[in-house]
């Protein structure tokens, strides 16, 4: 980075956005840092939340990490030593919240702020437009306001697992569930179940659904 940017916008306050913000702040690489996070809390994909019975992240209730915490932690901010190597999702979320608090990062974060557009405006600058959601009243309805600001740098830290990829031929079919919407094996009890894919999510889901009284073997 040849010249220090005056301002940097970081999109996403999950693990990637938090460590990016702390590094930029510690190294004094910018005079102004703004994090945009569309959720009401830090954590990104690890922020398991339910809204009226519908979960709002890719997490599911019983998820545990498929990597040991020793390779997930930030170099100078270890997980508590009394935790096992493979930890539940809630422990990761607490860790990220503690990391944000330890680095005093929350003061730089705009919560409930969803980035909707990033455009190059010349001279190496960027205009970022975001939408902020505000609870109107106790009825649960939200008002939205749009804001734009010019930055000299943008860091995209929104992760890969927020928007599911569903092949066109599967869209709209009954009883087809993407792993992002999975939250437990109970809805599959007594059914024939086919799981497509051989990644970590499919292995976890196959193990959980296989513990239920399904009518046939589970195929990956």
TrEMBL record:
It comes from the Eukaryota. Keywords: FAD, Flavoprotein, Monooxygenase, NADP, Oxidoreductase. InterPro entries: FAD/NAD-bd_sf, Flavin_mOase, Flavin_mOase-like, FMO-like. Pfam families: FMO-like. One of its GO terms (molecular function) is N,N-dimethylaniline monooxygenase activity. Belongs to the FMO family. PANTHER family: DIMETHYLANILINE MONOOXYGENASE. This is Monooxygenase. It comes from Perkinsus olseni. The gene is FMO1_8.
């Amino acid at each position: 980075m040849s010249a220090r940017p005056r301002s940097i916008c970081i999109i996403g306050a999950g693990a990637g956005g938090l460590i990016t913000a702390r590094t930029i702040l510690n190294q004094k690489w910018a005079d102004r840092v703004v994090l945009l996070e569309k959720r009401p809390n830090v954590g990104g994909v690890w922020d398991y939340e339910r809204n009226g019975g519908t979960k709002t992240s890719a997490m599911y209730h019983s998820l545990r990490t498929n990597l040991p915490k020793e390779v997930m932690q930030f170099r100078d901010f270890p997980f508590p030593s009394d935790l096992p190597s493979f930890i539940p999702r809630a422990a990761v979320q607490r860790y990220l919240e503690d990391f944000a608090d330890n680095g005093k990062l929350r003061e730089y974060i705009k919560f409930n702020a969803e980035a909707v557009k990033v455009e190059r405006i010349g001279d190496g600058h960027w205009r970022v437009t975001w939408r902020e959601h505000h609870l109107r009243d106790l009825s649960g309805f939200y008002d939205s306001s749009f804001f734009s600001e010019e930055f000299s740098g943008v860091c995209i830290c929104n992760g890969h697992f927020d928007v599911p990829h569903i092949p066109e031929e599967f869209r709209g079919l009954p009883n087809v569930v993407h792993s992002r919407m999975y939250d437990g094996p109970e809805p599959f009890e007594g059914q024939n179940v086919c799981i497509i894919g051989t990644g970590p999510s499919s292995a976890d889901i196959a193990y959980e659904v296989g513990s239920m009284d399904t009518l046939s073997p589970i195929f990956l």
